[in-house]
């Protein structure tokens, strides 16, 4: 049978690591799991209570509004004003999505079609590379450098890659997808980068889709910039914001696309055909999370930062130095020299780590060819477990000095 939209998808390499993880656990081994970026921290208690209460009201069992309840969009606008000093009209500049992933995928449907192209960095979060293809379009990749090993500014590198790809493209791209702090590399940028990107987009009449999944995860006082902080950005940009990482509400599936009114209207229209919105009690609880637990992301950030420090210090101690990321919830670790020199690629190395150290990581190749020299640690294990992982790694990697 032919499945045209998915035939071109690369094999899901994470499945191999998941299989090894399941096998190790079945053998009774204690796997320290940094594999999947699935937050382990609880959602805000207030939201959980509100969800339970709202679920008992039969009025909330009916179809909800696919664009999101007015008060949910208002809560999002309030948060953008408070955190980024960005004004958003809840009626015309915000649409609720079933998480950022659904939002981005369907956004590609409204922006792209067969014959169109989109620029996407590699490595990237898998849906960034796959989403344009689901819409029938072609992806043009640009390199995303590793801020730790290249020594260069990842924003500068991104813009150089963008300009080169633009100059070479026969069909001029309609869309640029980006995401900072970046998954998997943790590359982070400042507002000046966003200004340059917006200037490029205005000049070339291209839409920028900024996936801002790690909006609230900047460390050591760093606040990741929203692209909508740039003047005139609403002419050419949209941004995806999600409660998944900011409020540790991954399973709830609440996200937003905000920015350019025409694009918001287009996605709203498509979604009105596709879905009836997130379950209404979830939307009501999300309003409570944003309005009444608005500092919860600060608590989460402190925890992730502490985990980052323990992992980075531990890796340095065993001879695997990695530069501490400024944001995201990932450590993007180059395959250490003695192993890279033997020709080990990311899938081999991740396999070795799980088999010999009982430590699960994500092989970089799962995020695109550009990621094959690295493995990714997601900061979803606490400090105690991270110390355990470091002890296991020390034993499993004797060639580190
Ligand atoms: C860049 C990026 N976008 C989106 C998501 C998923 O967000 P959501 O749960 O809102 O779909 C993730 C999760 O890992 C991510 O890293």
Write up what this structure looks like:
The chain is of the alpha/beta class. It folds into 2 domains: 140 residues, Aspartate Aminotransferase, domain 1, CATH 3.90.1150.10; 231 residues, Aspartate Aminotransferase, domain 2. 45% of the residues lie in helices and 13% in strands. It has a 7-stranded mixed sheet with strand order 2-8-7-6-5-3-4, with helices on both faces. The protein has a 3-stranded antiparallel sheet with strand order 9-12-11, with helices on one face. Strands 1-10 form a two-stranded parallel ribbon. Strand 3, helix 6 and strand 4 form a beta-alpha-beta unit. Helix 5 packs parallel to helix 6 and helix 13 runs parallel beside helix 16. The longest helix is centred in the C-terminal third of the chain and has 22 residues. The chain is globular. The structure holds pyridoxal-5'-phosphate. Pyridoxal-5'-phosphate binds next to helix 5.
């Amino acid at each position: 049978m032919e499945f045209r939209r998915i035939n071109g998808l690369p094999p899901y390499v994470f499945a191999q690591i998941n299989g090894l993880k399941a096998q190790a656990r079945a053998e009774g081994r204690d796997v320290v799991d940094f594999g999947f970026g699935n937050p382990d921290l609880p959602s805000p208690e207030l939201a959980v209570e509100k969800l339970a209460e709202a679920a008992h009201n039969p009025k909330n069992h009916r179809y909800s509004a696919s664009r999101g309840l007015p008060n949910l969009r208002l809560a999002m606008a309030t948060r953008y004003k408070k955190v980024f000093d960005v004004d958003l009209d809840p009626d015309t500049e915000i649409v609720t999505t079933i998480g950022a992933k659904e939002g981005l995928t369907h956004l590609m449907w409204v922006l792209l079609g067969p014959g169109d192209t989109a620029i996407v960095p590699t490595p990237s979060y898998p849906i960034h590379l796959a989403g344009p293809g689901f819409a029938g379009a072609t992806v043009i990749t640009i390199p995303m450098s590793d801020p730790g090993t290249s020594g260069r500014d990842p924003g500068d590198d991104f813009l150089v890659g963008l300009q080169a790809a633009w100059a070479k493209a026969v069909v001029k791209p309609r869309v640029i997808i980006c995401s900072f702090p970046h998954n998997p590399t943790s590359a982070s940028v400042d507002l000046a980068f966003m200004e340059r990107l917006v200037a490029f987009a205005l000049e070339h009449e291209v839409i920028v889709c900024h996936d801002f999944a790690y909006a609230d995860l900047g460390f050591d006082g760093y606040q990741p910039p929203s692209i909508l902080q740039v003047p005139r950005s609403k002419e050419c940009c949209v941004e995806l914001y999600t409660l998944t990482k900011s409020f540790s509400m991954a399973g709830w599936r609440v996200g937003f696309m905000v920015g350019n009114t025409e694009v918001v209207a287009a996605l709203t229209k498509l979604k009105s055909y596709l879905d009836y919105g997130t379950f209404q009690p979830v939307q009501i609880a999300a309003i409570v999370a944003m309005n009444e637990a608005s500092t919860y992301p600060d608590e989460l950030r402190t925890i992730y930062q502490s985990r980052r420090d323990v992992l980075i210090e531990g890796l340095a101690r065993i001879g695997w130095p990695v530069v501490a990321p400024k944001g995201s919830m990932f450590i993007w670790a180059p395959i250490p020299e003695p192993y890279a020199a033997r020709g080990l690629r990311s899938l081999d190395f991740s396999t070795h780590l799980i088999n010999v150290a009982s430590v699960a990581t994500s092989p970089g190749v799962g995020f695109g060819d550009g990621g094959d020299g690295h493995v990714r640690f997601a900061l979803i294990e606490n400090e105690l477990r991270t110390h355990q992982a470091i002890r296991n790694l020390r034993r499993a990697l004797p060639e580190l000095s």
